[in-house]
């Protein structure tokens, strides 16, 4: 789990998703070595490792607290269910947790500074899916997985749901033209998540779910026109360089002066003369 180089993640992106993105592209004419390619590659290699270290320390401590607080009868009852039912429950419960954490990242200004790194992607593809600040990942994974651990699900449903999540996370960011038909109203698709990344007023703060788009339909936050968005990214001034992105949430950039600032400066100047 804690390998320095995540060879599996590299192989999945470059041996499976990159060829598909060129064979059946959603947006035509993308260059292979696009802008921010190196930044996203470093997110795949380094951020993944930072996240795993943080996960081991923080989530490990939370798990120990849960072990002593939750009665064992809950886990015994949950594990008595069939594996297929537990798998569905793990997907639903963890994605409700994902939805809550993701929506919180968008609505709390300090947390948005971490999540803005992910929304700075202007060319969506499977490699760009890895551009997530490690503390953003830690917050979302802890919120979505700790309830699963507390309820005491069996290991196999967690492994199966985890594998489905990993592939779906890459697919919904990818530049692959694939339609989900009527299932798009229930399951998160590239169309659904590409609209989450669209830099268009109607799409802001929409489509928060990671796996089940129906959660957004239930909470009234779904936005999914038939056409794909054309403009991605955020107006937040996120830097391009990898290490500056890691530091960005802690280094509040000066905003450009606005009209009221200039009027106040003039007033102070007049009073001092
Ligand atoms: Zn978001
Ligand atoms: Zn995304």
Automatic annotation (TrEMBL):
GO cellular component, one term: membrane
Oxidoreductase as UniProt keyword: yes
Residue ranges crossing the lipid bilayer per the database entry: 7-24, 44-70, 146-167
Source superkingdom: Bacteria
A GO MF term: glyceryl-ether monooxygenase activity
Cellular location(s): Endomembrane system
Topology with respect to the bilayer: Multi-pass membrane protein
Pfam families: FA_hydroxylase
Domain named Fatty acid hydroxylase: residues: 90-221
The keyword Oxidoreductase belongs to this UniProt entry's keyword annotation: yes
GO BP annotation list: lipid biosynthetic process; membrane lipid metabolic process
UniProt-listed InterPro entries: Fatty_acid_hydroxylase, Sterol_desaturase/TMEM195
Keywords in alphabetical order: Lipid metabolism, Membrane, Oxidoreductase, Transmembrane, Transmembrane helix
PANTHER family assigned to the protein according to its UniProt record, in alphabetical order: ALKYLGLYCEROL MONOOXYGENASE (PTHR21624:SF1), STEROL DESATURASE-RELATED PROTEIN (PTHR21624)
Protein name as annotated: Fatty acid hydroxylase
Source species of the chain: Mesorhizobium mediterraneum
Lineage: Bacteria, Pseudomonadati, Pseudomonadota, Alphaproteobacteria, Hyphomicrobiales
